[in-house]
Amino acid sequence: MDKKIIAANWKENPKSRAAALKLFEASARAAKAAEGIAMVVCPPSIFLEDISRAFARLQIPSSRLALGAQDAFWEEGGPFTGNVGPKMLKSLGIKYVIVGHSERRKWLHETDPMINRKIVRAMGDGLKVILCVGEPPEVRKKGFSAAKRFIKGQLKKDLQGVFGATARNDIIVAYEPIWAIGSGKNDNPRDAAEIAAFIKETVRAAFQRAKLTVKVLYGGSVNGKNAADYVQLDVIDGALVGGASLKAGEFNRLTQSIRMKK
Ligand code: PGA
Question: I need a surface site. Which of 19, 111, 164, 236 has the fewest CB within 10 A?
Answer without folding.
Answer: 164
